[in-house]
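Tokens as discussed.
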């Protein structure tokens, strides 16, 4: 199985930005955690982070053209603003899990909207960086079930 793990704006600042919300693990440590987890599970992981909306759209499309089985995405602040990311995920029809490090549902009103959510099979929030591993496990369980059925 091949998964694209896509992170949006400011997630390269993990470990520096607002540790009360996002913890102390930095982006490169997060990448190592994800790579190790995927290696153990026999999943090929393609990791990507960008601060630019169009580049994130390009990466979602690339996941489709490169034959990915699914996507795990933390769109960062674009969660709350981007119809382009929603359309990109819809256009691939790839099973996608939305993940947020913080408990967005307990935060500001503007964080209560997620455009991408309606195209996702699941949303994980408030589990810190461990949420990425949970998202990968849920995506692989979903795909295994689909193969079995
Ligand atoms: C975030 C939550 C968003 O509201 C915020 O803009 C982020 C990170 C999270 O992982 O908790 O950049 O997606």
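Sequence:
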């Amino acid at each position: 199985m091949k998964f694209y793990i896509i992170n949006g704006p400011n997630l390269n600042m993990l470990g520096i930005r607002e540790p009360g919300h996002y913890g102390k693990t930095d982006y490169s440590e997060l990448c190592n955690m994800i790579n190790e987890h995927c290696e153990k599970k026999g999943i090929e992981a393609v990791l990507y982070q960008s601060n630019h909306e169009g580049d994130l759209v390009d990466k979602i499309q690339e996941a489709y053209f490169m034959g990915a089985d699914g996507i795990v995405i933390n769109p960062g602040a674009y969660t709350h603003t981007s119809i382009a990311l929603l359309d990109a995920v819809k256009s691939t029809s790839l099973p996608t899990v939305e993940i947020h490090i913080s408990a967005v549902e307990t935060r500001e009103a503007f964080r209560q909207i997620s455009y991408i959510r309606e195209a996702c099979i699941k949303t994980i929030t408030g589990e810190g960086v461990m949420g990425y591993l949970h998202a990968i496990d849920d995506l692989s369980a979903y795909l295994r079930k689909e193969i079995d059925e």
